[in-house]
Specification:
Layout lengths: L5 H4 L7 E2 L4 E5 L6 E5 L2 H8 L3 H8 L10 H15 L2 H20 L9 E2 L4 H34 L6 H44 L8 E7 L5 E8 L2 E7 L17 E2 L4 E2 L4 E2 L1 H21 L5 E7 L13 E5 L2 H7 L7 H15 E3 L2
Parallel strand pairs: 7-11, 11-12
Antiparallel strand pairs: 1-2, 2-3, 4-13, 5-6, 6-7, 8-9, 9-10
């Protein structure tokens, strides 16, 4: 005979019965205390011989609405508590999106419509902003999918199989978002390194102003590309391509910061770069062609590859492309003899100014 109230064990749930040890745990409705009772083979036969609906509830094959009390509410409460942790993040995301939409519809604009010249690395800066937003969105999606997976796994009835469906589906979704976020993070690091290089060269080129040179950064091309820097002055027109490369320990005793140019490729300690000189050559050809059409006079442009932080031994001026360390670029340009008149310098600078003055406040 069981010395407990009938209401306490009238509706046993599957998670309350351990068939192997023949034990039943439940909470007393009056006191709330947890009790454990053991039953013999005769009561086990009675429980297993119950009608089909009751037997399913006992064996955990269905989640019946008839189940009441802490045994049913606890998993749901855990899931809701887990999901509640993501509420601030969701609210913040919705608030940011709503604020953007509201400002756009309200017609907010800058106090002046004057456009500014592009600073060094302007295009890279905009790309970094876009990648950062996508990286944040992917992290948020991965976090929410993981929370839903865990919450659904806890709340689903054990033994039904539904918990594994939710766990696998949302777990895979979280893993995919995490993988894409990792790729965006690697892309973001590369863009930031490139931005640092362009800003470094832009700062070094600033000293040319005292020699009568005009410097323009991030000159937009005909498609989705740009020339990092274009310098125009007494010595001519120079199209500069900046390549900021990270350094690693070298092999074979070669200096880790040395980059050798043989006229075709740049030989770094661990790899060679054939594309950078070719890209600088194409940029210079494009600048010369566009400026010749704009000023109605044939002009030439010198191709330069700038490597901030690297040592380039024995550079040669007779080569079609100059490959120089960052600090060498201004001094090599200063040493060039006069090739352009003041009037032609102003005409070319005017055309470049028109192309680069598109930054809105």
């Amino acid at each position: 005979m069981l010395a407990v109230a009938q209401s306490d064990i009238a509706n046993p749930a599957a998670e309350e019965i351990d068939w192997q040890t023949r034990a039943m745990s439940f909470s007393r409705s009056k006191t709330g205390t947890v009790s454990i009772i053991r039953f013999g083979g005769e009561l086990e036969r009675i429980l297993r011989s119950l009608p089909q609906g009751a037997a399913k509830r006992l064996h955990g094959n269905v989640f019946s609405p008839a189940l009441e009390g802490p045994s049913r509410m606890l998993p749901m409460f855990r899931m809701l508590m887990g999901l509640a942790g993501g509420v601030p993040i969701v609210v913040l995301g919705v608030a940011v999106f709503a604020q953007r939409l509201f400002r756009r519809r309200r017609g907010d604009r800058a106090p002046t419509e004057e456009r500014l010249l592009r600073p060094p690395g302007y295009s890279l800066g905009r790309q970094i902003e876009t990648i950062s937003e996508r990286y944040t969105d992917l992290l948020l999606a991965a976090f929410l999918c993981a929370m839903v997976a865990v919450g659904a796994f806890v709340a689903s009835p054990k033994g039904s199989g539904d918990e594994w469906v939710f766990l696998v589906f949302f777990g895979l979704a979280s893993a995919v978002c995490t993988a894409f976020a990792w790729r965006k993070l690697q892309e973001l690091r590369g863009k930031k390194l490139g931005l640092l290089g362009e800003q470094t060269i832009g700062d070094l080129l600033g000293r040319l102003a005292r020699m009568g040179y005009r410097v323009f950064h991030d000159v937009p091309g005909t498609a989705k590309w740009n020339v990092d820097h274009v310098v125009v002055g007494p010595g001519g027109i120079f199209a500069i391509e900046t390549k900021c490369r990270s350094k690693r320990p070298s092999k074979g005793g070669r200096p880790a910061s040395e980059a050798i140019f043989d006229g075709e490729a740049i030989r770094f300690p661990r790899y060679s770069d054939l594309e950078a000189p070719a890209q600088a050559r194409r940029n210079a050809e494009w600048v010369a062609k566009e400026m010749s059409k704009a000023v109605c006079k044939e002009v030439e442009a010198r191709a330069i590859v700038a490597l901030p932080g690297w040592y380039v031994p024995n550079p040669r001026k007779e080569w079609e492309v100059w490959v120089l360390s960052g600090k060498m670029v201004p001094s090599w340009i200063e040493q060039e003899p006069r090739r352009l008149s003041e009037e032609l310098i102003n005409r070319v600078a005017y055309q470049l100014d028109r192309r680069c003055r598109d930054v809105e406040m």
